[in-house]
Amino acid sequence: MNTQDFKRAKVLADLDLDYQELKSDFQDLSILAAKVAGTELSEVNFIDNYTQWTVAGSAGEFSQKPREASICNITITEDHQFESRVDLDLRFKDSSYVQKEGYKYYYGIPLKLNDEIAIGTLCIGGKTIEDLSENQVEQLHLIAKQIEKQILLKQKLRLAQKQALEERKLKRRLAHDVRSPLSGIAQLIELTDHSKEHYEELIDILNLIASSTTSVLQLVEDILSVDTKSPSNFESDSFFTLESLTQKLMDLYSPQAQAKDIELNYEFQPNALKFSRNNLLPMIGNLISNSIKFTETGGQIHLKLEIEHTQNTNNLSVLVSDTGIGMSAQQVDDIINKKATHRTGTSGEKGYGMGLVFVMRLCEELAGNFTVESKPEEGTRVKLIIPLKQ
């Protein structure tokens, strides 16, 4: 397969066309081409490595043939068009197209995307005519351009649908990650005694809320970076240490834990190593939010962070354990198999079944390791091992 064939095959593969479903897109234009030319035959064809696929035409039927048996196989190698008196052309005069079907004239236009690779043709065949007028040729090329535009529109539609799906996922991630801390802040404000007798307590609460709100805004920035950066380019301009990462997580998630009267504590060994943010807040934050959601009032959540040194790299070890309601073996398997399932929290919190699956995907994109252990009514332990970028 030569370079041009490879490119055409790649373009067609990227278009992912269902040839049998294209008749409604191109049938009218094909029939119009036959009327403009005054010929018995017109076709819209796509040609891959081995086959010519006739997706629309005056014959009205979907068909296919080996590309080497097709005159259009020559057309796709031309810049603008291929014209032939096939009844006189030594390459075609003995073909069934001439001998059995009675055609003596062919005119084909290569269909190109962005004037580059020819992926197919618009062609006409005549049994009585011997050439086309200048006006007919011009109109046929206009029809071919319209077919090319429709192909590009189908491609753009597919890309737009994919982008819309990714944006929908991003919005759900944002809602999932931001709803919980904001809800915690709201509940904390609602439960706070605003009387003058508790002025000092109120000041402490307001300071906590201010710190947490700043962290929420930072979380949004980190979540947005998930969709704007490739997995191999997640490094940010800012860095964490174990202490600053822990403090950021406590600022962010303490309000929602307090609002539910859950004890959120932490443990880390001081370490001066600086490492890239690498979406650590969305990952660990999702773990903490998930634990808060499925831990009953009065329960406990423990966060443990440490740096593990290996010969070739430094890894961040993250362990989030809780005294919550836990999960069944089937629920754990669903997470490992990336099956998102909906569950309602211990206080009736609405869930979307994304939390742990989302964490696992992010962890995998960073070449990390994700493990989860849980039993009903015995809590849950989730551990992440993430290679650090410094």
Automatic annotation (TrEMBL):
CDD domains: HisKA. It catalyses: ATP + protein L-histidine = ADP + protein N-phospho-L-histidine. The keyword Amino-acid biosynthesis does not apply. One of its GO terms (molecular function) is phosphorelay sensor kinase activity. It is an enzyme of class 2 (transferase). Residues 173-390 form the Histidine kinase domain. Signal peptide: none annotated. InterPro entries: GAF-like_dom_sf, HATPase_C_sf, HATPase_dom, His_kinase_dom, HisK_dim/P_dom, HisK_dim/P_sf, Sensor_HK_Regulatory, Sig_transdc_His_kin-like_C. Its EC number is 2.7.13.3. The keyword Cytoplasm does not apply. Keywords: Kinase, Phosphoprotein, Transferase, Two-component regulatory system. PANTHER family: HISTIDINE KINASE 1 (PTHR43711:SF1), TWO-COMPONENT HISTIDINE KINASE (PTHR43711). This is histidine kinase. It comes from Leeuwenhoekiella aestuarii.
